[in-house]
Write a structure and sequence with these properties.
It is a single chain. The protein is 45% helix and 15% strand. It contains ten helices and eight strands. Helix 2 runs parallel beside helix 3 and helix 5 (120-134) packs antiparallel against helix 6 (159-170). It is globular.
Length: 273
């Protein structure tokens, strides 16, 4: 088996955006195992040197270049990172600045965190993310009335990343709730979801793909077995069909496609684009 490939998400801010964009690309390489490291708030020479040291140490330990997804607007820090860190650099910011400056006829501010200025959109985004994290995987049923959509489905079918994408990109308060064997044996939705039936949206997945995903989490377990995955998916789909819950197959779709489809079918309001 090939050793894991180190991937660094390096940002002068929180790194959330570069993580989402980078991970979206990495999902296209299912046969590769990645070790992910996020290095946020790289704003000083000291921060920069620590980041470079970590990246170059990965080269020595793994005998191959790591991949770095970079989001730093300071030209000096950005250039030094490129010169001194031995890695494949994928910059999510700089390639777009010059074309935009040329098209708009003005120079960019090159100010770190400009997109995080104190405004309504920023606070809306943070509020949505906090709500989604608190209501991830059925962690709490408190304040579910505040959810704009509640994603349901079997474990590992894509509920969590989709919920976070909806919150981060569109400011949508998305909760998610797992359907379990207890729900299948009772042939009904969890009682805590019944008052919010109109907000439910189901996700499903091909059992073979689900088994592959679960094997990465719990190899050799009943939870990850193909037979169990088939049973859970079949039961979940039957339950959602019986309850007339709109359902989407996530097997061959990216997170962006899943989120866009949910917004369209559930008629959710994008609070910003």
């Amino acid at each position: 088996m090939e050793p894991r490939r180190s991937v660094f998400f390096v940002s002068d801010r929180t790194g959330i955006t570069v993580e989402i964009l980078g991970n979206s690309l990495l999902t296209q390489f299912e046969e590769v195992s990645f070790r992910r490291v996020t290095l946020p708030f790289i704003q000083s020479r000291h921060d920069l040197q620590n980041a470079i040291d970590q990246i170059n140490r990965a080269v020595e330990e793994e005998q191959q270049k790591p991949i770095v997804f970079l989001s730093i607007v300071d030209d000096d820090i950005n250039c030094e990172m490129r010169e001194k860190a031995n890695a494949l650099m994928l910059d999510f910011f700089q390639p777009f600045i010059l074309p935009l400056e040329k098209e708009l006829g003005v120079k960019s501010s090159h100010a770190a965190g400009r997109s995080h200025s104190v405004n309504y959109d920023y606070f809306r985004r943070m509020e949505a993310i906090n709500f989604t994290q608190m209501h991830d995987d059925g962690a709490t049923t408190r304040d579910l009335a505040g959810a704009e959509v509640i994603l349901i489905g079997v474990s590992r079918c894509g509920k969590t990343p989709t919920s976070l994408y909806l919150a981060l990109q569109f400011g949508i308060r998305a909760a998610n709730f797992p359907l379990t064997p207890d729900d299948f044996s009772s042939h009904k939705l969890p009682d805590s979801l019944l008052p919010f039936r109109h907000k439910l949206f189901g996700l499903t997945i091909d059992p073979k793909r689900l088994s592959q995903i679960r094997q990465e989490r719990r190899a050799g377990s009943h939870y990850a077995s193909l037979e169990n995955c088939r049973q859970e998916v079949r039961s979940a789909e039957a339950l959602m069909e019986r309850e007339k819950i709109p359902t989407l197959d996530t097997t061959a779709k990216s997170i962006e496609e899943i989120a866009t489809t949910i917004i369209h079918q559930a008629k959710l309001k994008r609070h910003f684009d």
